[in-house]
Amino acid sequence: MKLAHRIEPDALEELPGETILYSGRLELEEMLRKVVRSVEQVAMQYSPKNAVPYISKVDAGTVELIKSFGVQVVSSGDLIQEVEAKLNDKQLKSHREAAAFLFECVNEAFSFIRTSLKKKQSVSELVVQEFLVNRFKRNRYISNYPPIVAVDAHTGNPHYAPAKKTNFTIKPGSLVLLDLWCKKNEKESTYADITWVGYVGEEIPPKIQEVFDIVREARDKAIDFVRGRVLAGHPLFGYVIDDKARHVITTRGYGEHFTHRTGHSIGDEVHWIGANIDNFETEEHRRIIPKTCFSIEPGIYLKDFGIRSEVDVYVDERHVEVNPPELQDAIILI
What we know:
By secondary structure, the chain is of the alpha+beta class. The chain has 2 domains: 2-76, no CATH class; 84-333, Creatinase/methionine aminopeptidase superfamily (Creatine Amidinohydrolase, Alpha-Beta Complex), CATH 3.90.230. It is built from 7 helices and 15 strands. Strands 5, 6, 7, 8 and 15 form a 5-stranded mixed β-sheet that branches. Strands 9-10-13-14 form a 4-stranded antiparallel β-sheet. The protein has a two-stranded parallel sheet with strand order 1-2. A hairpin with a 4-residue loop joins strand 13 (311-315) and strand 14 (320-323). Helix 6 (206-232) runs antiparallel to helix 7 (238-251). The radius of gyration is 23 Å and the shape is elongated. The chain starts with a strand and ends with a strand.
């Protein structure tokens, strides 16, 4: 059953069901009561205590109004996933292609830095960012924001954005973090999102190596947990995956420096409407459902540098796929 205003009677024409028309506030309430009178529960874009802000779109007054009709309001979070977050075959194919393309971009960017330094050419965060943006354009990939290119202390800021006032030059001894996300510039395309790190030199400093090893372990523990639960046919929840990755980093003494969730839903937008991998910024108690995609990206951020390693994970009923398939198991020597 659909409820529409008489001045816009065709607003919901594309949706199935009978249409009921109303005019004015009093008739709206009367019609709403009619619509919900035969049910005990109504699912709305509501999250108890705003635990998951992504799905809390209904104002408190509207929730109060629906409750006043004697029905229980429940969250539509899982229903939203079923409708919006599942990938069809075309979307999954585009995600794989985007991830493979980003992997190529990472390797080309590190090679570009290496070649520039050998030629004694100045290369900075903004120069590398421009290199990547142009690569996107030439291959008809789009992104809501330019990729992150962070150098040295800037790698300690998870969402650092290069700018003229803060632009660091890359030099011997520099740590370089590349965080890239994009999708094909066409309908039904899906984002991919990856992060890799490289070091300009022949030997990784011990502290940087230590932090990288911990982040890599947290990433792999999370992936292994996902794979084990899915293959066994057991329920999988975003908050538990976050706990698994966070436990590794916390037990190594860096818990306070892991300052964001472990991952986010991926789909039509790089941060999408499905279940996130989060028990830190939000309480993500929605179940990870088949045919959905999300990132796993633990990180440790210190005053002088930061490390993050990010891959994308797609789950089906009994299948787990990591994209790109190549995991970063060692810091790239530039």
